[in-house]
Amino acid sequence: MSSSDLELTTMTTRPVDRPPYDEDALPAYAPMEWTLKEIRNAIPPRLFERHTGRALLYLLRDIVGVSIFWALATRIDALSSHADVRDLLTPPGGQILKWSLWMVYWWFQGLQFTGLWVIGHECGHSAFSPNTLLDNTIGFILHSALFTPFFSWKFSHHRHHSSHASMERDEVYVPKTRSDLGIPQQVHDESIYDEILGDTPIYTLFMLIRQQLLGFPAYLMFNVSGQKHYPKWTNHFDPASVIFTEAQRNGVIMSNIGLSSMMAIVYAASQKFGFAEVVKFYGVPWLLVTHWFILITYLHHTDPTLPRYRGREWTFQRGAAATMDRPVLGWQGRYFLHDIAHFHVIHHFFPMLPWYHGEEATQYLKAFIGPHYASSDKPIFSALWDTYNGCQFVEDEGNILFYRDRKGHAVRRPVGKEQ
């Protein structure tokens, strides 16, 4: 081997030296100064118009889609057990075909169920129709059918929108602080972070799966990821919960009636058709609704580059800009999920703007707020893994905050902050 070859080999195998972490060298962030009225004036008024007929067509499309997938699924077991199929594929091959087709059904029906959930969400914002009674009726039916307490969640969700990114008042995805995790204020040895935050990849994967499948029920029942100053046992089913005002209590009761009715329907269906059949046709797609809802909302509101605010630094428009658009699942996300992931930032600024105007309105928003508009096209499951590991906690002090990772490192700093 020549000396030049040896030198090349050494260069390609030598570990890359990364510069030491320097917080002062991080990109500085200055929050926006525009008023909400200035931002709204940048978007054509026609995009705020709600068209009931158009919204009903989207709803009809989703109901037809659910019906088609359901009807096709009724043929899976018969097809895979047919004598000709068993002869062609052998009995084990027929089983593989059977469960492969069920997985295809679960994937698409899970997305279609989620689309119906999204329409219920739009009803909760009165973005479906100017008719409040119609919004509440359709939203109540859709969300009850998917085990979401429509009015209860609508009330807390409105509070989330009105206070997003406020450490003191936001309703969900409230970051843990340094003291919450028991991390010392002054850390001179990064091994301390490993002792407190270090997890094996297998354990991290387990925690992610737990979040994806149980995160939404845990939030509704136990206020997981909600405001830490709420009393113990805060939940979305108690009409006297601190989440709700006295005027909202009848809505909470109505939501509970809707869920109880759905439980009775599922029980009756299990008695008639068998529990396994209910799980296959309804249970697994419903579980995927929970997965997609948590994945989308978590990645909308959580990223190392998105700020959190305390005190007077928070304003509604700053909180709205502290969200991120993500093209979840490409065309499938656009068709089945009604663009809820692709154009979420505009939704936080103007929740009553119809979802079918989101794409065009986003272009006007981007042009006006410029670098304060946040989006990422990172592959969604890679983004989920990176965000889960990179967003561990925020500091106890300061009025503009950014997440820190498992080593205590941030990727941005407030403008003017010096260490």
From TrEMBL:
Start and end residues of each Fatty acid desaturase domain: 101-375
Taxonomic placement: Eukaryota, Fungi, Dikarya, Basidiomycota, Agaricomycotina
GO molecular function, one term: oxidoreductase activity
Protein known as: tRNA-dihydrouridine(47) synthase [NAD(P)(+)]
Biological process (GO), any one: lipid metabolic process
